[in-house]
Specification:
About 35% of the residues lie in helices and about 20% in strands. The protein has eight helices and 13 strands. The relative contact order is 0.11.
Length: about 325
């Protein structure tokens, strides 16, 4: 029978709740209550979400990352740089992440930490979701505060109220985002600016071709001008849609545009683990040619029967 420590616990959707869990777990890990959340949303935090003291009262900083995708080395280095400006100077920095253990990230963190210690700088460590919940499980009362319904869940599978199909949680499906372009993103407002520029160039081109200012062969530029107009319109529509829906398919339905909490646009593909056969599932935007299409996870092993409709509103928000 699973114990508190060995059970697979769901990751909270809210970054705020994740920080609360990490705060409680930190007090239990270091054995005293002198841990506090640092500032509030919108304030300069210098790479530290939670600060406290270790067993000998040395200052510790914790940066929380509630994400689906694994943390990259660039993100790790950026958070270390931010924490360099925290005062008083830290004796250690911990990156608390909601993902599973990652040997590659652990290895890089060990190397970076060793190099920093040799330079008389604070070391850096990574706390994964199992580490955090393992610390939280040391106190049953604290554990129940966040996972009070964990042991009273019904064994009967939940079904969709409209069609009776089985439904699964994000944790049960192990949904993973795979960022394109090395995880780089752009502000949504830039897309709107580009749409205006591109559409304006297209409109100007059409005016010039129709007036034959460019000579008797001006009509040859008409297709390009129309393409610019259409491209500008598409960019404007994408920007408007993402301002409301935060999630939209792109590039033949294999990639998806997602808006982060800071209104930046990320391009991701999504995979999951099939809850029936444990094979990989890919998210695809499919449906009838002239009808409404849906975002559906399709199993590699049994693509005809093992399919799950995605509700994008249940995905954790992307926090830049």
């Amino acid at each position: 029978m699973p114990t508190l420590i060995t059970s697979k616990l769901p990751v909270p959707k809210s970054w705020d709740e994740f920080e609360d869990i990490t705060l409680s777990a930190s007090k239990l890990r270091w054995g005293h209550p002198n841990f506090f959340r640092h500032g509030r949303s919108g304030q300069q935090q210098h790479g530290v979400d939670i600060f406290g003291e270790d067993e000998v009262h040395r200052p510790i900083g914790i940066q929380c990352k509630n994400t689906i995708a694994a943390i990259s080395e660039n993100v790790l280095l950026a958070e270390i740089k931010n924490a360099e400006s925290f005062h008083p100077p830290l004796s250690a920095l911990y990156i608390a992440t909601s993902v599973d253990h990652d040997s590659k990230l652990q290895g890089r963190a060990r190397i970076i930490s060793s190099e920093r210690v040799s330079q008389n700088k604070f070391p850096v460590h990574v706390l994964f979701w199992k580490d955090i919940t393992g610390d939280l499980a040391k106190d049953e009362e604290e554990f129940i505060k966040y996972f009070g319904n964990f042991f009273v869940q019904t064994a009967q599978p939940q079904t969709h109220p409209a069609n009776g199909n089985p439904t699964f949680t994000i944790d049960e499906m192990e949904i993973v985002r795979h960022p394109a372009f090395a995880g780089k993103s752009i502000p949504r407002k830039n897309i709107l600016k580009w749409s205006t520029v591109v559409a304006s160039l297209g409109a100007l081109g059409l005016m010039l071709t129709f007036s034959k200012v460019l000579g008797p062969n001006s009509g040859n530029w008409t297709p390009l001008a129309m393409l610019l107009c259409m491209s500008g319109l598409v960019l404007a529509i994408i920007s408007e849609v993402l301002s409301k829906r935060k999630f939209e398919y792109f590039l033949r339905g294999k990639y998806y545009l997602e808006a982060s909490t800071s209104d930046r646009i990320h391009l991701n593909s999504l995979t999951a683990t099939c809850p029936w056969c444990a094979s990989k599932m890919h998210l695809r935007h499919i449906g009838p040619k002239n009808g409404v299409k849906d975002d559906i996870f399709i199993c590699e092993r049994n693509p005809r029967q093992h399919t799950i409709l995605l509700d994008p509103t249940v995905l954790p928000e992307i926090k830049d």
